[in-house]
Amino acid sequence: MATQGVFPLAHVCSDTNKMTLINPQGVKLNIYKQKVEQAIKSYEKRLNKIVWRALSQEEKEKLDAYKPMRYLENKAALNRALERLNWPISLKELSMLENEILAGKMYIQQAMELQEAAKKENHLSTSQGEVGAMEVSICPPSFLS
After folding, report:
1. Secondary structure (DSSP) of 38-103
2. Tell me: the pLDDT tens digits for 16-49?
3. 95 and 47 in contact (C-beta within 8 Å)?
4. Which end of the chain has less neighbouring CB within 10 Å, N or C?
5. Hey, is 9 helix, strand or coil?
6. Computed from CA positions of residues 115, 121, 127, 130, in that sequence, does the dihedral angle turn out positive or negative?
7. Could you give the count of Cα atoms lying within 13 Å of 58 in the half-sphere of its Cβ?
8. What digits encode the pLDDT tens for the residues 100-111?
């Protein structure tokens, strides 16, 4: 008995960074989400370490911190401490990492929405005997590398 595979047929438009999925059930979104979550954790860890290393012992004591603090959750206090130290690290680097983390969270949200839409589309297609197409934003490949 032969098994049938699911083929995720897609058309990618490089101008708009959009992809039209002909068979959204063929995309392994759970694996995609796991990879994006791993990338986010890695970026958060790096961001927290960069800020922690830039803080003086005195600033760490003022913050009552004895291990790296989560930058995104303590951004205001950590930025004030960095400002008092005359910004010993690049604000551009912090912003870049923060933007990548936020983009990753957006990609995870889009993947969850696509999964939900695919379930609904599958239900409709099954009842009507059709195959539907969906247009979605895709994650730039550089984010996962």
Report:
1. HHHHHHHHHHHHHHHHHS-HHHHHHTT-SS---TTTSHHHHHHHHHHTT--S-HHHHHHHHHHHHH
2. 766 666 565 666 888 989 999 999 999 999 999 9
3. no
4. N
5. coil
6. negative
7. 4
8. 999 999 999 988
